[in-house]
Structure formats: C-alpha cells, structure tokens
Predict the structure.
Amino acid sequence: MKILTVDIGTGTQDIFLFDSLLGVENGYKLILPSPTMMVRRRIQQATQRGQPVLLSGVIMGGGPSQWAAEDHLRAALPLYATPDAARSFNDDLDAVRASGVTVISEDEAARLPSSVVHIEMKDFDFAAIAAAFELFGISLSDLAAAAVAVFDHGNSPPDYSDRQFRFDYLDRQIRTSNRLSAFAFLSNDIPADMTRLQAVARSAGALDFPLVVMDTAPAAVLGATFDPRIRTRQRVMIANVGNFHTLAFRLGPTGIEGLFEHHTGFLDCAKLDRLLISLADGSLTHAHVFGDQGHGALIYHDQPLGFPADDYGVAVTGPRRSLMADSALRPYFAAPFGDMMITGCFGLLAATADLIPSLYEHICPALTSPHANQRAPWDAD
C-alpha cells in the first residue's frame, strides 16, 4: 500500500512515497525545486531573451515567481495572465493590473502569438512527479492516496486584512477540532475561501484515489511530533521556522494550547526567543504579534509551560531553523526518522490516517513504531 506525500514550500517541494511494505526510513524521497522557483526560472529566462510571457493555470504560491514577474515588467516586457493565474500574486485583480500585468481571458490567451512564452501556474504536478519516479522503475499507478501541503492565506474579503483572515481561520479550525489534523481536508471538503488549497485539488484533476490537502506549518509541526525525544513529552512547544513564515505551537494532552505566526523576515534569534517565552508563559497577545506585522497569536490554555532544566526548551524544524542556532532556549532540532527535510510529509501521513480510517491501520504502526512492518527494499516478494 503506497501513499504519495508532497510538502510544497517556497524553496523546495519535498516528496516522500510511503510504502507499507518498507520501513519508513527506507521510503523513497525527492527534494526538488518548489513550483514557484520553477516558474521564477522560466520567467527569468524569458526576460533574458526579451520575450513576452503568458501565465495561465490556477492560483499557486507566489514570492519568487512574483518577484521575477516584477523584474520582467521593469524590463518593459509584456506580461499577460489569466484571472486565476493572476490571483497567485493578489486576490484583487485590480491590484494585479495596477502592477502592470495585463489580465486577459482564457479565449484571449489562446489567441496570443506563439512567440509569447506560455507558463502554466500550479503547485501540484502529479504527472511530473509520477514521471520522475517512473524513471527509476517506481510506478504510482497503485496509490491508495496522495496528500499535498501548501501555505494558504485564504481569500479575505475586500478591505479585510489577509493576516487577520488567516488567523480567524486558524482559530475557527482549532475551536472545531483541537488537533493539528484539523488543518487537513479531503479534496471534496476544502473550505471555499481556502483558494490555494482548492487550486491544488483542481490541478490534480481526476484521480483514482483520495486526495488530502493541508496547511504546511501544521503538517511540519505534526510531523515533528514523531521524533522520539518529542514523543516522550506530555507538553511541548514546536516551532516551524519557514522561509517566509514562522509558526509555533504549544501542545499538551488536550491538544493545541496556543500558537503564534509571524513573518520570518521580521525575526532574529533574540526576538524569536522572546515570542516563544511569551507563548510558553501565556502572556503573548494577538495584538502584540499582529501589530508587529505578524499574523497573530492565540492562547487556549492558561497553565504556563515551563522549560525543563535538564532538557530542551523548544523543538525546532523548518528550512530556516538555523535562525535559532544561538537561542538561549536550548532548542532541539527535530529530525523524525532521521530526516528534517520531509518532516511535513510525516505530518501529511498522520493527517491522512485521521481523515481516511481505512488507511489508519497501515500508517499508524509505521509512524509510531519505527520497526513495525519493516522489510528491506531488496527482499523478495
């Protein structure tokens, strides 16, 4: 039984193929450029050649691709985008037009000359991933499920902060089901205003197996809980220090006790330490983080979380975890099953087990008992 997991970040897309016949450590994995970095490269190539560009497809992650688009426009070269592709840069199409992008219909896009470089926007390219595995003799034709994680601000109403909108969503999900897998959905159950998650399901097309989508940061934090040193703690604080966003959760027996989310670019080690200490003692406020251009903070449990004198103060994961290298909190750098890069994939697996009960008996033993269901990949059938 095989499950494909894909954790899509700003710099990389981290891919893990879970096979219940193999030990988790023997599962196949790929660390590849993120989709937004791939789009960025193609736009840059067109800019260097002096060619106009058309962006089509669906909403996907921005950042590097948007910066390349801005450079293309600064070079006085045409940039066209269909409405859904344009929303990768801003949900407000008037704002996209004001930046210099020419927003056109699908019919208008089809009539552009062949000299225009056509780039399709999408976060999840199942066909490309399947083809990559096929090159090494691994077929994805028999998947039991696939799970994909992306970061989604959501489609906030006009004149409403997208940072506040995202925190309203986080609060709503936790109050509905106080567990990290509350941020995962089967493709038919994605909230309508989570437009990037919706776009992942659209770009996947018709699949012969269930598709689970999830927010990246909760997936990474959930995956980190499978590190043996973290599993021994009744209460723990885990920070996911991503390229763009840092999200920290305080976890306990009742579930999520508190969290905050900030932009990584606004943080240094000392500032992050102060935020984590305030999250631990329960004094951190939403207004404090939001007023500093972060997303916000939520506290659900009034009992402070003390830092053990003989153990780590906070567990850390994420591509910019080195930001905490000199932290006074004695951080523990989580590496479940020996691999930090695919921590989010392990979280996706756990969430898939929660959402699809028929797969629970295959996934849970493998994640909670590393030596269960193990077979070396070279063993005969």
User: Anything to note?
Assistant: The chain has a mean pLDDT of 93.
